[in-house]
Amino acid sequence: MATASLPIRQEPRISAGLPRVGEFMRWSVDHKIIGVQYMVVALSFFFIGGILAMLMRWELLTPDVDFFGDGAVYNSAMTMHGTIMIFLWVIPMIGAMGNYVVPLQIGARDMAFPWLNAFAFWIIPPAGILMLLGWLVGPAEAGWTSYPPLSLLGHDGQLLWAVSLHLLGISSILGAINFIVTILNMRPEGMPLFRMPLLCWAVLATALIIVLATPFLAGALTLLILDMVAGTSFFIAAQGGDVLLWQNVFWFYSHPAVYIMVLPSMGIISEVLSVHSRKPVFGYRMIALSSMSIALVGFTVWAHHMFTSLTPELRIPFMITSMIIAVPTGIKIFSWLATIWGGKIHFTSAMNFALGFLSLFLIGGLTGVIVGSVPVDIHLHDTYFVVSHFHFTLYGGGVMGLFAGVYHWWPKITGRMLNEGLGRWHFWLTFIGFLWTFLPQQIAGMMGMPRRVATYDPSLLIYNQLSSLGAFVLGASALFFFYNLGWSLARGRVAGGNPWRALTLEWATTSPPPPLNFYEDPVPYPNPYGYGSDAAREYLDEQQRRFPAALEAPTDEGSTSASLATQPAGTSAGSSAGTSAGQQQ
Amino acid sequence: MNQPLRRLLLSPRTLFVLLLSGIGVVGGGYLAGEMTPLLFPAQASAEARQVDDLFRFLMIIAGAIWFLVQGLIVFAIIAYRRRPGDDADGPSWHGNRLLEFVWTFIPSVIVFVLVVFSYQVWVDITTPKADENQVLGYDVVPVFAEGQQFAWRFTYSVTLPDSGREIKVVSPSLHTFVGQNVHLTMETADVIHSFWVPAFRIKQDLLPGYTTDVRFTPTLATEVVWENGEPVHHGYPIVCAELCGSGHGSMRSQVIVHATESDFVESFLQPEIDFIINPPTDPVLIGQKLLADNVYGCASCHTLETPHFSWDGNQAPVLNGIGTRASLRIAGYSAKDYLLESLGNSPAFLVPGDWPAVMTVFQAEDSTLATYMPLGDQQAIAAYLCTVTADPDAEPACEIELSAPTSLDAPEAASEAS
Amino acid sequence: MTKTLAPGKPYTEPASRQELLAAKNRRLGLLIFQVSWMMTFICLSVVNWQLRWQYADWPPSEITLNRIFPSIATLLLLASLLLFRSARGTLTAVDARVSFRRRWWLGIALGFLFVTIMAVEFFRAPMLVGTTYRDVFRVMTGFHLAHALVIGWLAIRVLRNPSPEDGWAIEAAIKLWDFVFIAWLIFYAVLYWI
Question: Considering only CB atoms, which chain B residues are within 8 Å of A280?
């Protein structure tokens, strides 16, 4: 009987190993390479955005504008920090996780449109550079929300910012189309929609939001660019324009955008909590449906970002829709709690981050309900309370989920395990640093500190200093993460096919998978989260037994019976060497 | 539900644990609510009281939920951690209809209650009150706020009861009194700003192309401190709460809440009215008033420290000692000529440098434009600036006589840069 | 896989599961792309709607809106769409190549007429007084024109392909021209009637 303590140790026989570094720097239509490319770009921008945050918090150690010298420079740092973190870190990282894992989880050879996949990725590096070039010509300074008329008074960098964002939006739409078609069309026979992994549900919901909402961002940016260069006056009140037009169109995209950023992490959490506590996901159907309902209802709440500018009569309806969205979110949190309840919780780094997600996203959600109430939001809007709220949901939720995903799937992607000790440092520094940074901000906001300022009332000094110290701790935590990634590539223990003994299909192949993902026609285990049953245990044991055999004579794509000849007779799961030959492309 | 689970749930031990946790959750929620006064500034308006009550309720609910869920998470982490050597999987629970219904239904009910409570408070806060903007002896005195990069200006439209003449009192701070139902209308001169008084818990954006408004009723007078024999109010801060440019963080003012209506009239409104009706003959005093009240927005950008007022804008040159410099800066220009030229034709002698702000080009011809500054005002301001010498005891650098009407004289009331 | 034109069949049967899947993927992908991109048109219509609340009259009273030409253009566009569709229908006929090309070219010609009329409308717009009205009008007509031109060019490319039996190119071109038409209907209604 094979051991089942995680991660399990398998014989160090990997099939193809990672492709050479050069492969990752070139155009490739292999979704696995594209996934890694997305990840590298995303992590690079995470680093840049993080440096900007450290600089901002350094400035905020004192009530006066001293470090940056000028409020305008601070505004540009703040604008770029937000824009980079949203559009060049979180959203591309979702592209990374989704691109790598989704095709594997549904047993596909690649995404539906591999060429389009590569094209969508390659838009991102130039768009990112274009955004950074803003610093050469005078950067954007109007916040990531870029409200006119302020954004129309800016430097040329504001135009670069708008064009760059346009490109990034197009990239995300193309990627989303790919995800929807892949998930809807390319699942195998044994995987109807309600038996596919929850990450796929989450990515499907996210992709639906992207295709429906991002065009509004494109519209808003187009009008802004026309106002900047073509002498139109969509947002210039003196010439017949309307500043509220920007706010409505922009937020119609940007509110669903926050669900884009958090839904995939929720999918990741469903996976990780289940695998690492050896229990099925509790309420699978409700979690899947709640992802869809969050996506849908998310389109009706946008004006809660405008509670102090919208016509007063319209504020209450948006309060109602905003409060409603708390219900499916709550369903998820309770379901996840029930998932780990009664299980065998393995405190791997992935699990730690997933549990951290639960705690931090809980606070984020609760503060969201608080600002959802119009009278209270009148006081809290545009203060540091809101800054704290969205960092709790986007970082404490979204980014923690992404970290959990990296720790969970890194062995599959690279064939090597990450260092658990470093992972623990990373987690605890992140968790403590995060609370240290953002809890004082809630109080600062309530006491009267507005957003987007480099100078503040001296009575708020203590909160800002505490927050800045916490931010430095949080910044340091990222260093442990990056070091761990490098350490793993150099010295990490070989992972084997299924170190976590998970039931989903991506683990039914080698780590990393061969170019066409599977050595045989993948047949999904009937329940992707069927832990705790004898059948599951047998399936996993069988898989472990067969793996060394499948690894024996690998590498070229057409290989069929040769590699599978050493299968024990009467293998389960219904694959057969004969038919697989015809299926290889 | 399976039998072992049923037995577990109904055992005395379980019920005891449930009772204890229930107390913990409810108590925790209550404690969270109690934190409310510590988290907010002074509760200085009727609206603040209602918002704080609503917030307290939200905190109780959020606190209780937090204690419940976080407590369960911590419990699960401890109780269900994998023991060394335990390599089995957990139980194969896929769901429970009842549980899922409960945790859908109860949050829905909570959400409904929150919506109803919030709606009630909202209606209360926004319903127009009776007797808005009433001031004893002057009937209705509408007050208008204007935001510009990066200062606030408040204008009171006073109709004199005896003559019917309408005058405008301008002030950089908002003056009101306890119990006044204030209805403030607002416009912006440039970009979006937001009028926020944390102590009142009210906030409203100022949008180009719109006239927005906000209502509040102060209930707590501002603290009065005696400095140099003069009573000074420590007003409630007015904070700009919408990014408006490089000076956004310094765009502040204050609300001064007089304890009584008569105090408001006697110590603020009446002296301002008197100054306008009977302006002093000395142009220096007129100039001082125009600058102290920030009628022309100079305070947003310039820094100037005088015995009468203090500006700390950092978007434009520092004006300390301008009186002395004025005669030395441009060859052939005396202090008086320099100052008058700088005001009436400002691009003439701009100080070179990368200033974030752009100097307004004032003009004395078209009184309908926002840049209108009557000649008399230019002379008054120049006269005052002549007294701003590097050495505070020195003689004024020039003497100017008023030869044209000032904004205080015009029958259709002062037209300031709005 | 060789492609042979079997009598009575519009195009070759896909030979393998992969081709079927690829065809299914292409169709779904194009559909989702169109739904997504339709949202930009809806966005511009919403922009039109929001801006008009600033005005007492919309269009501003100085403008008399000429509905004749745009209506003719709409009918031309509809006709060209119907021609493209009927061209595809003739692919099963005996003289498939000839009849297909004839109808397809006619469809292109009518589409070209549509583009010409709307280009005139676009460039005429400066005569409209009232800045924001003109801005919105030009953005909407210009945006649609750009799409009509790009997709029209794709339609022309179908004919450059020596074997118009390639089912997907024709099918995609028709679906995209459907899109141009539906988007135009929305804009036509918002610009000239509502």
Answer: 92-94
